[in-house]
Amino acid sequence: MHRNIQRVGAVILGIIFLSSIPFPAHGEEFYKGKIITFIVGYSAGGAFDTYTRLIARHFTKHAPGNPTTIVQNMTGAGGMIAANHLYHRAKPDGLTIGAWAAPLVLQHILGNEAAQFDGRNFGWVGVPSPYDTVCTFNTASGIKTPQDWFASKRPLKISSIGPGTSTSDIPKILKVAVGFPLDVVEGYKGGADARLAVESGEVDGYCGSWQTVKAPWRAAFQSGKILPVLQATLKSHPDLKDTPLAINYANSGEGRLLLRVADYAHGAQFPYSVSPGTPQERLQVLQNAFMETLRDPELLAEAKKSQLEIGPTDGPTTAKNLASLYELDAGVIAKLKEILVPKQK
């Protein structure tokens, strides 16, 4: 009898001890009263910034606990500063979500030392929209068709944010795969700045997402001041049926392969991610809230009004797609490295 009482007492003490251990809160409970910070690796007014501010406005309704959301811009190195910050400095607590260009993962694969991360280790939240790259030119350039571009007596200046974005990678690949005369002018802090350079005549053109240029440049397109000349995707966008596809001008089988890889790597241009080591249950909460946010009728109405396309890809699919880039053939990687990785000075 005495031993039984001792055993019962030991069990009770054990329960009390275990209950005193501060186990981490479940994902759904954790976010109540918290602040989620969206870090955008590019300047205000650009594509990432525009989509992120739209998502952040509606995200709190769909995240359990209704956390507050804020958006911060962390510009520099074509989004690399933000990506490295998320990987090394942001706490892996699920309270910081990064928005930076997916092809920066390709820069890591190609050996760019500035990419101080492994894309397979991020927690991928999802992608809000498709990304169809189109090269556009101002009227001062005199370029109205691909044939005009081929015939140009000088390299056309293309404004770019930096390596690892379509604004840089796509024109560099077009130069090799198709043979267009061009020079990439890098260093703009975001898409808005790069487009402004086209409008002002500082450069001739810009290769970026149709989803993000058709709204801010709507008046310029309608007036003919800015012209869509070439699609760098494999399939034509419904808005651009009369704009030729770059792959039809590829100068070799290798050229066509490079354009296919570019389309795949840049098709998920707008991913959202969290730091490595973020608890899985919190990542799942964010992934679910992300997809619910992008189905929100109020968000969809606002996006339609702003001419922003919504077509989300969930987090697990995004993770799988980006991880597959690490399986590229060694020969393809070597060629892409030659084209896309900045040369050491």
Could you characterize what this model shows?
The chain is an alpha/beta fold and 345 residues long. The chain folds into two domains: 30-129 and 269-340, D-Maltodextrin-Binding Protein, domain 2, CATH 3.40.190; 133-266, D-Maltodextrin-Binding Protein, domain 2. 43% of the residues lie in helices and 15% in strands. The protein has 15 helices and eleven strands. The protein has helices at residues 2-19, 27-30, 47-62, 80-88, 103-109, 146-151, 166-177, 191-200, 210-213, 218-223, 253-266, 280-293, 297-305, 315-323, 330-340, and strands at 35-40, 68-73, 96-99, 123-127, 133-138, 156-159, 182-185, 205-209, 226-231, 272-274, 313-314. The strands form two sheets. A six-stranded mixed β-sheet has the order 2-1-3-10-4-11, sandwiched between helices. Helix 7 links the parallel strand 6 and strand 7. Helix 3 (47-62) packs across helix 12 (280-293) and helix 7 runs antiparallel to helix 11 (253-266). The longest helix is centred in the first third of the chain and has 18 residues, at 2-19. The chain is globular, with a radius of gyration of 23 Å. The chain starts with a helix and ends in a 5-residue tail after the last helix.
